[in-house]
Amino acid sequence: MLAALQFCPALAAGQDNGEPVKFFATRYTTSTDQLRQRFARESGATLQSPVDYVIRKFQDHDIVLLGEAHGWAHNTDFLQALLPRLHAAGIGFAFEPINARNQAELDKLLTASRFDEESANFLLLDTGFNYVGYRDVLHAAWKLNQSLLPKAPRFRITAIDESDMATVKDWSQLRPGEKARDPQVRERMIAALRQGDSRDQLWMQIIDRDFIRKGVKAVVYAGAMHTSTSFLIERGWDGVQGHHRTVGNMLYDYIGSRAFTVLLHEGSRYRTQMVEDLLGDSRSKQFGIDLKSSLLGAVPSLTDGYVPMQRRGGPEGYTLSDLADGYIYLTPRRQWLVSPPIKGIYDGPRNLRLVQERMRLSAGDRNLKVNVAELEAADVRNAQHYQYLTNGDW
Q1: What is the DSSP letter of 216?
Q2: Residue 202 · residue 99 · CB < 8 Å
Q3: Which of 126, 51, 101 minimizes the C-alpha distance to 348?
Q4: Tens digits of per-residue pLDDT, 28-72?
Q5: By C-alpha distance, which of 284, 291, 296, 294 is closest to 332?
């Protein structure tokens, strides 16, 4: 197995030398072309299509965690292609973008004779996954069920999220004069969540109940930093101090190597550019590959919003193979497209009530008027900014 490359100080300082793969050449005292040739030679017989790769992982594993960067169209396109294969293989599917409390409505949506777009919009609005791609995933699951014989088992999406666990849910939680958006309120809500693990704990309970205890294998599709298994992380953005145990960590503690993490091609510009530089001509292919036995696994990995702290029992400094067991490459970064925001997501009295109550709580104003046109315009601006970040240092 390749020795892990050390963390690169130049990249840590935010410098971009234009050709990150040179760091491999420095470490291995060889040329960039030779490294690319080595990757092509070593991986040529092992590259599999992304869908085949995921399905074959279940020969040796019970839970496969797929970690994404939220909102990219190519990820949800891949997911739509994966669903029929999961169903054919009897593999379950757990999905972050739907709140667990809405499971009954989700079941109804996916088995109804007509796809209820307003219901789908509500389910996604409730978690803030306001992207067309996620609704397309729900529609693909509904369409799959429409194609099945009348007595055949239906494909089910298991909702696992509880996205507002660290937010104020109703006025009774606010003290006189407080607003939900005030920092002290946020701190009080987080302090009640036992170091920020409660959201992932809920996921773990659902996965255990619906899959592990029943002997059912499953894919867990979630944000990338929820999926780390043997890698500990620290979250700083929400005020939580210390290591945050992800649902992947919990699964690893529970079932060990029967849990397997696969990252979809994502992350900082530095990491993705290093991956793509190393791929060379393979950048035109879609594939899945194991990281522990691949040169790709030696790519240095930098902080991406969450702050990775250490390998369990390992030294400081980390690589792609520390973060995950496998990697799925779908498209080069320059071709990434943000899934557009859902038009009309605020239509319908229930959807409008949901967003109106949350905004009133946030502002501490029971009479706040919600302007739907402004909300939709803000969604478009957010998507445009997210797209802009593909060329930035996130």
Answers
A1: -
A2: no
A3: 126
A4: 555 678 888 888 888 877 789 999 999 999 999 999 999 999 999
A5: 284
